[in-house]
User: Fold L1 transposable element RRM domain-containing protein from Lepisosteus oculatus.
Amino acid sequence: ILNVGVMGREVIMLQTARSSKMDIVIKRIDEVEQQVSDLEEGSVTAGNRIQALETDLCKALDRLEDFKNRSRRKNVRILGLRENIERSNSVGFFERWIPETLGMEMKGDKIKLEHCHRTGPRCKSGEGGIPVPRAVLVRLHNYRDKQKVMEAARAKKEIIVEGKRVSTFQDFLVEVQKKRAETAEVRRSLRDAGLRYSFLYP
Assistant:
């Protein structure tokens, strides 16, 4: 009877120990499940934050691009002019060259510029081994004069200087030039149909 009692107590102690271990295991499982839940919730929160940051970044880049383009609103690029045709006084030269070449009537036969300079790398070879002239970047004093220059250039259709064709363009970022180039086919169709169109700046 004594042995049975001892064995009974041992069984009870063993069951108690097992129960305690089971409680520890269950508690640990609950802790792990909570950690997983917290991680999943944190992952969702982090994902939302990343998405919000990406949205803000895109908006900031769009505003920066718009600012850069608007800062170029008074600029005109002239392509095809022989290097050094303007000599040492580029502003003085182009203040008279632009209205004279485009047939513009200006007060004092000149148009007011803020500055102008050649831009881009020097190309070593061109037609007949002659170096390709760099573009001339002209910044006019006010936006209305810039618009008059572009209108006069369009009206003239073809500009020939020293037997070479010269072109004028608005000064846009490369990204905007690519976007506008994507609409070339549509614009061509509109012109063929006799329809007028315009871009919202830029």
Summary: Helices lie at 2-70, 90-102, 143-156, 174-181, 184-192. The mean pLDDT is 81. Residues 54 and 81 are 44 Å apart (CA to CA).
